[in-house]
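Researcher: Structure for this, please.
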Amino acid sequence: MRVARVEHDTEASRAWKLRRTPRGAVAVRDSAYRDAAVLPTPKPTRSASVAGMTEFVVQTDGLTKRYGDRLAVDRVGMTVRRGEVYGFLGPNGAGKTTTLRMMLGLIRPTAGSARVLGRPAGRPEVTARVGALVEGPGFYPYLSGRDNLRTLARYRRLGPSEVERVLELVDLADRGSDKFKGYSLGMKQRLGVAAAMLGSPELVILDEPTNGLDPAGMADMRRLLLGLARAGQTVLLSSHLLAEVQEICDRVGVINGGRLLRESTVADLRGGPTVRLRATPEDAALAVVMRLAGDDGVRRGDAGSLEVDLPATATPELTRALVADGIDVHEITANERTLEEVFFEMTSEEVLP
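Model: Predicted structure, token format:
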């Protein structure tokens, strides 16, 4: 695996690193930006149902990385299925990037194993089929965006048309002749994604791909990633933008303190809808709710509210029961937890040894 040099970006006041595979970096869909006339992108119905897929593109078993006395990744076992968009979530320092590096063969695990595309991670025949953008893009600052991509394309024996294709994908074709050092943070990020798409790899690994993008750019990136999955490519991304992850990911893994806390579909992780209720007197309302939802089906929320494990269709019956008992109903609404709420709930808990 080839590792490109790191250039210091004074504009962004940070060091950008770009790890390149023999085939390049990461791949993304056909003109996501150019074709982005469409309104908010609904989650597409995939031609091949992700739920029915059984082939694992990524599979780790007891994956562990220790730096001296510090345990960075602790026995992580995760699976990424072919054709899905997988969100890898965790707070800063949780072990996300270290795990991704082990999947790419950039660092060796202390224990455990990672298999990518059916083979041990880091093998040349594996990295040739994987594109990745980890910890931000780094290019030659004195070359244009187009010439940077041409340099990478030559290593992979790809022609100029492939460079133009990926520039179109990320909406940089009009700025491709500008020098990299003059790019904004968002443009640098998009060029990194374009480089990663060279050769249309089977697996795309993106670490914070929307970093530095404006809202329109983030919407375009979302369409781009969904287009990749529609085309049969697999996307593994880490992100702090949980609303974006909720919109585009099929499954997510939540890591904290180096441990994988949960791996599930987004729908299962969020749980079913509940009913939020505010009524007085509270004790009388609680008794009625427990009669309908069970003793374990109700929790006290903020501002004197009750969270009830009942579907939205049960609100008329619940309202009638409360009113029949002389209880004043101030608010009753269907409520569904966001991925962000679930994430903070899970990662705020202390990780026990």
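Researcher: Any notable elements?
Model: The chain has two domains: 7-269, 272-336. The domain at 7-269 is CATH 3.40.50.300 (Rossmann fold).
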